[in-house]
Amino acid sequence: MQKQTLTLTSTAVLLLYVACQKTPNEAPTPVSTPTIPPVEVEYKIDKSTPVWADEFDYKGLPDSKKWSYDIGGDGWGNQESQYYSKELKNARVEDGKLIIEAIKERYEGRNYSSARLVSKGKGDFLYGRIEIKAKLPKGRGTWPAAWMLATEQNYGASYWPDNGEIDIIEHVGFDQNRIHGNIHTKAFNHSIGTNKGNNIVAESDVSDNFHVYACEWLPDKITIELDGKPYFTFNRPSKLWQEWPFDKKFHILLNIAVGGSWGGQQGIDDSIFPQRMEVDYVRVYPAVK
Fold first, then answer.
1. pLDDT band at 12 (very low <50, low <70, confident <90, very high)
2. Is residue 134 a part of any domain in this protein?
3. Residues 6+ away with beta carbon under 8 Å from 82
4. Using one digit for the tens of pLDDT, what is the confidence trace for 221-273?
5. Is residue 74 over pLDDT 90?
6. Residues 167, 214: Cα–Cα separation, whole Å
7. CA-CA-CA-CA torsion sign (30, 35, 37, 39)
8. What are phi and psi of 144, to 5 degrees?
9. Based on the structure, what is the number of domains in the chain?
């Protein structure tokens, strides 16, 4: 009985092996790649009422119902020099404005403290107009930003850049009045030299004056503006998520980095600190069909 069982098993293995062989001219079985559905409905921005906003009409710590903190000092993938804390000295609301302040001090093993606020889980959006009125820090070594990341990892093996990034404000203190808007995806990102973006020089000093920075995000394009003037548009190039992962919810981040691979390209001027970013409001208007 045992011998018969072994014979049948060997035969089955042989048949399975033969069945799995392909002739030299036989095409391999295609592997499916997820794609983004086509755009079938036209959207437009409804600016009548925000669906989410912080007007900073209170005092003290940022509203915990709207903001959380990224905390740590590991360089954040950009060789940055600051430690992000959740302390009042680094992030607070006063006189109707959010203050994010970078301080020159020894803090948790780093030479600077700062803050990075995130709306993840408390303000997550799919399409719309994100509007931020802000005054930026000044001086060599500062790297403030207002930007967006995917709330969940829906694409690829890596959270970044596979799931996308939208930069509404990027500014480096060694190039004072130039504002940058960018997008990053798996196919288009700075780490491989393919990122998509543009920049504009503000008409008045960005550290002495408030300006309105905005992003209009629709199913087929993303447009970045300064004071109502569009200066960068990224049109959806294909149905591939590698080029357009922007069909899922994103959240907002506000921060001041110090130094780093871009902000620190010309060094850090320690005499400028403390430096702050002041935010008058953050508003999100819906995109409607």
1. very low
2. yes
3. 73, 102, 110, 111, 112, 113, 114, 256, 257, 258, 259
4. 999 999 999 999 999 999 999 999 999 999 999 999 999 999 999 999 999 99
5. yes
6. 10
7. negative
8. -80, 155
9. 1
How far is Cα 224 from Cα 231, in angstroms, rounded to an integer? 6
- Residue 34 in contact with residue 238, Cβ under 8 Å? no
Q: Let me know if residue 190 belongs to a domain.
A: yes
Give the separation between CA 251 and CA 68, rounded to whole angstroms.
11
Class of residue 214 by CB neighbours under 10 A (exposed 0-12, middle 13-18, buried 19+): buried
Q: Which two tokens stand for residue 43?
A: 């959207």
Q: Which domain holds residue 145?
A: 42-288
Q: Using DSSP, state whether 198 is helix, strand or coil.
A: strand
Alpha helices, DSSP H, located in 205-289: 260-263
Q: Is residue 165 among the annotated active site residues?
A: yes
In a domain, 232, yes or no: yes
In a domain, 130, yes or no: yes
Annotated catalytic residue, options 101, 131, 170, 243: 170
CA distance 23 to 25: 5
Q: Beta strand pairing status for 221-226 and 211-218?
A: antiparallel
188 contacts: CB under 8 Å, gap ≥ 6: 194, 195, 196, 243
Which class for 87: exposed (0-12), middle (13-18), buried (19 or more C-beta within 10 A)? middle
To the query of whether residue 170 is one of the catalytic residues in this protein, the response is yes
Catalytic option among 101, 165, 243, 278 = 165
Q: Alpha helix locations (H) across 27-182?
A: none
State how far the Cα of 261 lies from the Cα of 78, in Å rounded to an integer: 5
CA-to-CA dists, residue 285 to 44, 112, 239, 266, angstroms: 10, 35, 26, 38
Give the strand pairing for 142-150 and 250-258: antiparallel
CATH number of the domain residue 227 falls in: 2.60.120.200
